[in-house]
UniProtKB/TrEMBL annotation:
This is Glucoamylase (Glucan-1,4-alpha-glucosidase), GH15 family. GO terms for molecular function: trehalase activity. Pfam families: Glyco_hydro_15, TREH_N. GO terms for biological process: trehalose catabolic process. Residues 243-600 form the GH15-like domain. It comes from Micromonospora pattaloongensis.
Amino acid sequence: MAVVVGTAIEEYALLSDRRSAALVSRDGSVDWLCFPRFDSPSLFAALLDDDAGSWSIRPAGPATATRRYLTATMVLETRFRAADGTLTVTDALATGGDRDPHALGAHAPHLLVRSVACLDGAVDVQVRFRPRPEYGLVVPLLVPVDGGINARGGPASTVLSSPVPLTIDEGAAHGTVRLRAGQTVRFALHWGPLDGQRPRAYGDAELGGELDRTVRAWRAWSELHQNYQGPWRDEVHHSGCVLQALSYQPTGAIVAAPTTSLPETVGGERNWDYRYTWIRDASFTMDALWVAACPDEAAEFFAFMTTATATPRAGARLQIMYGIAGEHDLSERVLPHLSGWRGSRPVRVGNGAWSQQQLDVAGELLATAALFADRLDAADPTLRAFLPNLAETVTQVWREADYGIWEVRGAPQHFLYSKLMCWAALDRAVTLADRLGAGERTGGWRAARDEIRATILRDGWNDRIGAYTQAFGSDALDASALLLPIVGFLPADDPRMRATVEAIAAGLTDERGLLYRYRPELGLDGLSGREGAFLPCTFWLAHVHALAGDVDAARRVFGRAVGYANDVGLLAEEVDPATGALLGNFPQAFSHIGLVNAAWAIAQAESRARSGNGA
């Protein structure tokens, strides 16, 4: 059997202009790029198939590589040490203007800049450019133009700015340039639609200016927003930058990840498109940015939600997810021409979960609104009507079965987490009622909230297992039960909660000390195969230990999870229990959210311990 080759997920770094994203491998290859949006068809997709396009710049011979993000930015610097010299490649998706930190990416020109500098000695630099638009379906026509190469094919065109001549051959361009110490050359790729402003070649000075402005823009945002001073400060600040990088500047939407179909197990079918806005993930992202950054993005996010959902009437139901410009229909399809990362098929675009009923989403949204309550006084009237109507809907639907936080593709159930977040929705709605001018509705909200609480305490607990379990009447453990204390339903040191934590730690921990979200081999989710350990759930466990005052345990669990960040501080969704390799779409917002919130909880627990207030 042929060996299926694919670059390890942890070998990639993220570039973002807050509109689109690229993944760059350690050896200098851009293997994923979607212009002009996160969810646009790819221009480079070698991540999913070797023939689906890439753009590499690296030493022509053997070299070792180290890399980092420039301080407080998402600008990547890769340093290659070759036999006869040292080379740096600095990569960025240009953000455009740098004057207003709140407008980071607002004027992004759809430009990927790659600056190559020789630090010492002399290095032969190899350039290979193979664009393949439309997820690899199109082999474009490459035509030399003044200052570079124009690639035409499909609904858009691109111009590669190249300071050196390149040879065009079968839909690819390639060449080698020798750089000596002190020399710098800059390349760039500019995208433009056929029915809009056409792309162009950029000069060296222009590209230097775009790169400098991008560095300044990220640093201005970080200086204004990054205030966290607790443990793992650098990791929290970097996660704040990553979460900002995963937000879509024009609308305030937040993608769960910038990729599609990176699998939950190598060769498996659990391959999904994450380039959309889940209400759950986006709400949790806002909560994390409240810790890792300042809350200025909240207004954008809520404006997006009220526009995207378009549900002003009481009783109307939210979708669980939307497109980044508010699209509702995210119908899923398979791309059969792509072999998938390491043979993991099918490759999917769109996500069929958009049509599922999941009852938890109102809870996450209202919990985020409560966190930013002081900003609701001056909120848009549409938002002030929207939030109470969400609560009203919860009173009507909470008794129904749904597909749960993990979006099972089996039968609906009465999932514990879904009921918990229905409780949270009404609990926060009661808190917000006066601010929203909805005080007269609180009687019904309180009654439903208390009924949900009693139901969870009665039906969510499983005497046989000695824990709160995945669904009412189920014997299956589920790490989402760890949210019971995180959202304030039960104290973390409640005896039943401690028993649940112990059961989850014993029953869902892999040999590396990381948590599975549940046991897929039980066949409860309607899918075949296994999956990796789930990093967000491991951070939840650390978070709960901190809430219970078990700081040493919290630090141990947190340390294990954060140790799976790659060399530039990025986390995927899952970890392969056999190899420790990263799995799933990358980087994953949910994992960075868990990191931020768990670090915050540990900081608070340590502060309480110092002041003698205990847990």
